[in-house]
Amino acid sequence: MRVYDERQCRLGEGVLWHPERQQLFWFDILANQLLGRDGDTPLTWQFEENVSAAGWTGRDTLLIASETRLFEFNLQTGAETFVAHLEAQDPGSRSNDGRADPQGGFWIGTMAKRGNDRPGAIYRYYRGELRMLFAPVTVPNAMCFTPDGGTAYFSGTRDGKIWRVRLDAQGWPVGDPELFLHHEGRLIDGMVCAADGTLWNTHYKGGSVAVYGADGALLTEHAVPARHTTCPGFGGEDMTTLYISSACQDLAPEICAKEPAHGQTFMLQTETRGQTEHRVIL
């Protein structure tokens, strides 16, 4: 485990490896920033509201979820193209975790800006339609998909439970979600499904990435130097590097100043190959 980027995010999230650019992107939600690197050079794109997750739509474009909308963003020109409203009528909510599915849809969760005061929901955008899938969900996270596109996973972070639901050929849920696992005492945060079907899950306030089998069994756990781990994502030339974002929120300022690892972004070389991130079809 080593540091990939030393910048200290208040709330790192939305780790995305762009397969055509061979480049990592992630967000600092509370700073309203999209972050990246060009070799040794740190990159920052500043926005006027919270931004939290993205999927790639082209070599130079991302679909980004903000607190009020989905929009396509051009990395070269900075141009923004509106795609859909996302709880724009509710000033108390924002987007959170999100990921593209194998069918080309984009799943995105919403939550209260104050976290626990009320639940949010999970939506899916697909070919021009934004549809609410599940509600209420308190702090939606862990959205990821089996390699065959037949199953989606998600969580409500506060209850330590991960749910799964079957998907049809177009990627829409079929039937009701079923409980996949309950890791009592853990705050389930971001998660990604590897090419072998294993699930790599970050534990907020747990400082770790847990690896679960397709049957829900805990296989191993990797310690992370930051206490609040938030989102994992596979990337690198052979898709075996796991990138992990973290947060310094909920820690005393003096702790964040003394221990700069909190909020930094990390990388772990694994023997597991991740799925190539799927392209969002607008």
Features:
282 residues; mainly beta; 4-stranded antiparallel β-sheet; 2% helix
Task: Describe this structure as you would to a colleague.
By secondary structure, the protein is mostly beta strands. It is 2% helix and 56% strand. It is built from one helix and 24 strands. The strands form six sheets. A four-stranded antiparallel beta sheet has the order 1-24-23-22, with no helix packed on it. A four-stranded antiparallel beta sheet has the order 2-3-4-5, with no helix packed on it. The protein starts with a strand and ends in a 13-residue tail after the last strand. The relative contact order is 0.17.
Quick summary:
The chain is mainly β. It has one helix at 253-258, and strands spanning 2-5, 12-18, 23-28, 33-38, 41-46, 51-58, 61-66, 69-74, 80-85, 93-100, 106-112, 120-126, 129-137, 140-145, 151-156, 161-167, 173-182, 187-193, 199-204, 208-212, 218-223, 228-235, 241-247, 265-269.
Tell me the β content.
Answer: over 45%
Q: What profile does the largest beta sheet have?
A: 4 strands, antiparallel
Alpha carbon gyration radius: 17 Å
In round numbers, the mean pLDDT is 96
Q: How would the global form be characterised?
A: globular
The SS-based structural class is mainly beta
Strand elements, count: 24
The low-confidence parts are: none
Helix content: under 10%
Question: How many angstroms does the end-to-end distance come to?
Answer: 36 Å
Number of helical segments with 4 or more residues: 1
Instruction: List the secondary-structure elements in sequence, H or E.
Output: EEEEEEEEEEEEEEEEEEEEEEEHE
**Largest sheet, spatial ordering of strands:** 1-24-23-22
